[in-house]
Design goal:
The complex is a heterodimer of chains A (10) and B (215).
Chain A: no helix or strand
Chain B: H1 3-26, H2 34-47, H3 58-80, H4 97-110, H5 117-131, H6 134-143, H7 148-174, H8 181-206
Helix pairs in contact in B: 1-3, 1-7, 2-3, 2-5, 4-5, 5-8, 7-8
Classes of the chains: A little secondary structure (10), B mainly alpha (215).
Amino acid sequence: TEPSSVKDEL
Amino acid sequence: MNVFRFAGDMTHLISILVLLLKIYTTKSCSGISLKTQELYAVVFVTRYLDLVTDFISVYNTVMKVVFISSSLAIVWCIRRHKVVRRSYDKELDTFRHWLLVGACAVLALVVHEKFSFQEVCWAFSIYLEAVAILPQLVLLQRSGNVDNLTGQYVFFLGAYRAFYILNWIYRYYSEQHFTRWISCVSGIVQTALYADFFYYYFISWKNNSKLQLPA
């Protein structure tokens, strides 16, 4: 699970 | 990626394509708020600062480039295009949108996930996007009648964030670490701002009548 800091949403 | 988020991104893309179609085919931007378009350009530029630093996926990068370039192109068209700029409702589009920018900047400095330049900019862009439609809705209320393409533009723009709310609910239950309160609360506020427009849009669609917003 990627850390929540990575913003994978547009 | 889940179906709600993909549907939201596609709806968002459609809203931009509808706007570009309107400006390109009618060579007119009547009924379009330049201030909302400028706010969206700021939203995309401040949100996608990681465009060159973090590679998430081809889809993510392509969509970011499309959103940034289309929003800047639309602002350029309304400001500079020799034909389109003539139809800009300058005297109706008088919302003081820099106040929104200031308020969102202050809020982002107070409420953010981490105190770093990129995170504060990201929170700023999330807050600003929630209120970016206000100048456009005010302009539509003042001009009263809404032409089809503009109505569809605002409808798709509002619908995309509603899909994102479903996406956040889905991710909340399917991913143990997923909490994006800033996005969720801001997204709910954003969708709520469209609520009255949706209501009048649905009524006009049901009665097959022209969309009239109460002045």
